[in-house]
From TrEMBL:
Segment forming the signal sequence: none
Protein name: AB hydrolase-1 domain-containing protein
Entry-linked SUPFAM superfamilies: alpha/beta-Hydrolases
Pfam families: Abhydrolase_1
Domain AB hydrolase-1: 34-285
Organism from which the protein derives: Pseudozyma flocculosa
Length: 314
């Protein structure tokens, strides 16, 4: 079990984080730029398993909980003024505190939205290595997964879930219903057949969500942060020397695949990765296929000095 550590922000929020590292040290893993995984809406560190363990075979990988959720807290007097940019700057402050001055970022869903905001932030400065420096931390490469530039379209009927949940009297039963239905939306219906490996992952994800701290008011604040941020007008600030890889499945119900078109249009040098198994996967992308399919592709992109993204299949 990797130990959870804590960092206190300037306004009193406490961010829980964990650093996964290769079990055996080698020259390649020691010299590899650390990778940071950025959670999506309502997600917590536990949701990154088993991808984080696979990625950590070749480099240090940091995962963390956004303020107010999971292992992270907020002060009693916090005003819930949350933005996509402020969540990114929470991370930058955390990285600076542990002395990580150069990193790669992988953002999932809202985390990808945050990643785009950071690498296109107005105060960002292009580094000699081609990345973007934000408050002393250089972002070298970015992986954007199942994400968007603005409040996304999808085929999920969240209001119907809320309406059905309101008719359930017991809190425990109501929480189970909401968690199950929200998790169901992370996959496409054709794939969720009882007895399959993917269905077992789906059931495991439900238990993780039920067993971790995910306050409704924090999730609402995260949603409003997404709603209030459209990064399309600032993507031109991302230098072409900062490689960007895009992963998005055609069966995504939470963030329509078409939302990624805004990304590749706004970041012309961004490239899509499609696994050999094809693009018929949904929002919880790394639960599809074998975990190493994803970790190998991401590791190759991060390790390739000649920009592996340019060779990723379109």
């Amino acid at each position: 079990m990797v130990q959870t550590q804590h960092f206190t922000t300037s306004d009193g929020a406490v961010l829980g984080y964990r650093i996964h590292a290769p079990l055996s040290s080698s020259s390649s893993s020691s010299s590899a730029v650390p990778l940071v995984l950025i959670n999506g809406l309502s997600a917590v560190m536990e949701h990154w398993s088993p991808l984080v363990e696979s990625l950590a075979e070749s480099r240090k990988v940091l995962i963390f909980d956004h303020r107010g959720i999971g292992a992270s807290t907020v002060p009693d007097d916090w005003d819930h003024d949350l933005t996509i940019e402020s969540m990114g700057l929470d991370l930058v402050a955390l990285l600076a505190s542990i002395g990580w001055t150069k990193v790669d970022l992988l953002g999932f869903s809202m985390g990808g939205h945050i990643t785009q905001a950071l690498i296109s932030i107005e105060e960002g400065k292009k580094t000699s290595g081609g990345g973007v420096e934000v408050r002393g931390v250089e972002i070298r490469k970015a992986v954007l997964t199942a994400t968007m530039t603005k409040l996304p379209h999808g085929d999920a009927d969240l209001q119907a879930i809320q309406n059905a949940a309101a008719k359930i009297k017991g809190k425990q039963e109501r929480d189970l219903y909401i968690t199950t239905e929200m998790m169901r939306l992370q996959y496409h219906a054709d794939a969720l057949r009882p007895g399959t490996e993917l269905y077992k992952k789906f059931e495991d994800r439900i238990q993780v969500s039920l067993g971790t701290r995910q306050p409704a008011e924090i999730i609402a604040s995260q949603f409003f942060a997404i709603q209030g941020c459209d990064v399309r007008k600032q993507l031109h600030r991302i230098p072409s020397t900062l490689p960007v890889l895009v992963i998005h499945g055609h069966r995504d119900r939470m963030v329509s695949y078409s939302e990624s078109d805004y990304i590749v249009k706004g970041i012309p040098h961004a490239r899509r990765f499609v696994p050999p198994q094809g693009s018929e996967f949904a929002h919880f992308w790394y639960d599809y296929f074998d975990t190493r399919t994803w970790s190998r592709a991401i590791t190759s992109f991060l390790d390739d000095d000649n920009d592996a993204a340019s060779r990723a299949r379109l």
